Automatic annotation (TrEMBL):
Belongs to the purine-cytosine permease (2.A.39) family. It comes from the Bacteria. The chain crosses the membrane at residues 54-72, 78-101, 133-152, 172-197, 209-226, 246-268, 289-313, 333-354, 375-393, 399-424, 456-475, 487-504. It is found in: Membrane. It holds the Pfam family Transp_cyt_pur. It is a multi-pass membrane protein. The lineage of its organism: Bacteria, Bacillati, Actinomycetota, Actinomycetes, Micrococcales. This is NCS1 family nucleobase:cation symporter-1. Keywords: Membrane, Transmembrane, Transmembrane helix.
Amino acid sequence: MTEIAAPPGAPLTKPQDIIEAAGHPVGSGNMKPEYDVRLANEDLAPLRKQKWSWYNIFAFWMSDVHSVGGYVTAGSLFALGIAAWQVLVALLVGIIIVQVFTNLVAKPSQKTGVPYPVVNRAIFGIKGANIPAIIRGIIAIAWYGVQTFLAAQSLNIIFLKFIPASAQLLEYSFLGLSALGWISYGILWVAQVALFWNGMEVIRRFIDWAGPAVYVVMIILAVYLVSQAGWENIDFDLSDPNLPDVGFWGSIGLMFMAIGIVVSYFSGPMLNFGDFARYGRSFSAVKKGNFWGLPVNFLFFSLLTVITASATIPVFGELITDPIHTVERIDTPFAILLGGLTFVTATVGINIVANFISPAFDFSNVAPNKISWRMGGMIAAVGSVFLLPWNWYSNPTAIHYSLGVLAALIGPLFGILIAGYYIAARQRIKTDEMFTMSDKGAYWYRKGYNPNGIKALLWAGIPTIAIAILPKMIADLGGFDISWIGNFTWFIGCGLGYGLFVLFEKLDPRVPSFAGETDGISDGTIDGAAATSDAEPPAISAEVPVVTDAKA
């Protein structure tokens, strides 16, 4: 076993941390003696080494895009009732917007080497940062359960095909889920926890091959269906022929709606992308990975999706926009096994990167001395079961009124973060100050909270939630229907959050920019790796107490 010395003053390693801290050897988080244990552990502290290449970021986005949800979303856009070229233009515009904003949110974490919730300490305050962390964490827990349930449905199909007797398990149910469903859900729950438990480096290796593997099967599926249908029988217009002609201005409105759907679909992982960008070896590597992983990858995936979905019409006599059902209709053992396992892998991939890692960091940020990265992830995994996602996922109204409230806050949180880092702080953060509870600390503000951040979140969040909830409520009660505005809540919330925070900081400046200082400053205006005086921390002394790497 390799023995690695713990930094002086570091908190004692908990049992759940003995294997690795966030996928790295114990001690790789730069835990300095002056860091307060109520704010820091080896998972949240600035990384000593940032090793991810552009391909690792590219693979991250492949895992995020290549899912059943991504397939259905892309396919639904081609059924809006506008021409295929208009959908492609909307897709391109939407995904470029996502790319631009993802680059913006990536920089503070890549430069400082800390995850999303820690960066928020510079904007919301040392304690106030827990507000956006908890909001994002709860959203991730809910969707973690949903994605696990969707993957379990794929596994059900495999069981029913190869073990016919398993059909009897469908006759028994508990808490709204069949016995077979519980078995499939349990298998995938354990598999995802095992993958997560092995740390970020193992997750990186998993997503490096998972995304390309899904591409291979997607291409095989598309080629097979097109060969069965004949290229001349493929029509990319998937809209219902009974839909009325929307006209020129109507089609423009639908294009904007498609743009809003694309941005909203990526809003969750876009907000906490800093959790991954922190591992990038340089900001240029992160931007390159975002370019190949977003506009290039998403457009290619969307084309594969529409080709495959279009081919289902002549082959099966109906439009099928769910890849699981498409594979099931082929009805050959090899196709069902290969397709089912592939889409299980794809769903596990997006679940890990979008809904597991985020709450792991978010909940660890609340009490770092008690909750490690792994423990934070386990809170999310266990919490997802208690939410019983299969009972409310099939009810769009339940999703709209429960998660809709929290999801409406993603835009304001994003806008506040961008305004705080780029305008108020001028891309200058004193990293060590994010790990002190001293009331003299730069980010202590007022009792640990930045009043401007809290006010901006409230003033931007309340109207955004109202816009997300009230139009549907009015329509459900028989009033006029403007529920389409719900597709733009991210833009509205982001704009309000950004504008209000800039205004409040102008009227009552709180966020320091450390003008003229250089010592310990992470300056995002400087090219290259994180520009701090501690960018290359000294080697760990061999004279301090030793923590032995062991199995838990």
